[in-house]
Structures are given as structure tokens and as C-alpha cells.
# Entry
Amino acid sequence: MDVIDLKDFYASDLGIIARRLLGQRLRKHWHNLTGMNCVGIGYGVPYLGAWRTETELAACLMPARLGVTHWPEESQSAVCLIDEIDMPLAESSIDRVLIVHGLEMTDAPEEMLQEAWRILKPGGRLLLVVPNRRGMWARFDKTPFGHGRPFSRGQMTKYLRDAAFNPEAWSTALFFPPSAKAFFRKSAIAWEKMGFRFWSGFSGVLVVEATKQVYALTPAKSQRRTFRRLKPVMSPAPVSFDGLSRIDKVI
# Structure
């Protein structure tokens, strides 16, 4: 999916409900970001607005494969097109990182998490949203959560620990079926309440909050999957005919 597909989904009836329910869950993790620097990696535009008025900086970093769109619409753009494994931010410069529609869309999840670790300040926090491998939303490609790679809780724990993050809080969201039918949209809140109580393992998405481990060794950055740059090489000096004739005699 690209940025146009994502924008169209969140403008639809189904996307509006998904944004509201998932946004409430994210807000419970980060209820106050006053004076902090917060960036979203992937397509965090639908959710960053909840903190924009209280943060010192709220910006969205969109990977090149998704494309870019203007945000916020009413003011100067706070969106940057990036390489997700080489972000244009200084080390230890960000307080909070939100990743939505990012990790499942990239073919280098380890490198993306390592970059998030690099730009976070000591003790900074990461909030990560991924499709749940056991949920319904990962099985239908009508929504963004049905594209890319879904994850289990065990897989996410391993990815985070390998990148020197400590998972501290888990949450779930989107229990109602990913259908635009009026019945499911009107009963979405009831589905969410029943899901939290009876089948929390089958949510549409997994939400995990993790902290940067400053006492751990810096995660070794994987070799970048890019083409080699061609370097100029001096041409060899031409061999004289006399030299060739002498070689022939030796042979």
C-alpha cells in the first residue's frame, strides 16, 4: 500500500472507527507528552494529532516506499520522506517514537528498530502497533492491517529485545470484524468490550510500549541492503611493445 491508499482508508467509515478505537488505546499509553519531541515512523498521521498541541515537536517520517503527504493540513508540513534504515535525525534527540504501518511494511524490521533506538534519548519510549497474526484484520486485505507481515507477541518480544528495547506494557485493539457494514460499525464499541474480556488474544492489532535500554550494548547495525557505490579506479598504465616482446622471450 502507498500513502494514497492509507489516506483513503482513514477517510472511510471503517477507517474512522478504527482510528478512534485504536487512538483511544494509544492515548492510554501516552496520556501526556507536554514539552516532548515525538515522531511517527510509517503512517502515524491519523494518531499524532492527539499529541500535537502539547508536544514541543510532532513530526511524521514516511518511508520512501509509501510516499509522502502534507500534514497537518492547516499549517506548515511536518512530514519528511526518509530511508527507514537511515533516518535524518541526530542520535538521542527524540523523547517518543510511534511506529504505525511501518514495521509490517518494511523488509528490514531489525534495522528500523535499531534506527528507532538510535534516535531515542536514554530512557525514551517506543510505542509500536502491528497486525496480530491471530486476528481477523490480518486476513483481509481491504484494510492496511491486512497488508505486509503480521506478528505474534513472541515475535515482537524477540525483535524488541534484539534491538535493545525492553517491552513494558502490552495492549490490544480492533476486535470488531473489518467490515464496512452498518451493523458491525454501530456495534464496534460492544465488540471491543467483549474482546478485551473474552478473547484478547484475537485482536486485530497488537500494541506494545517499550523503553530504550541504555545499559545494554548498542545493537550492531545490520549491513545495509543497498547497491554498492561505484568508486573511481585509476586505469592501469599501458604496456609497451618492447615489454611484451621481452615477456615473450622469457616464456
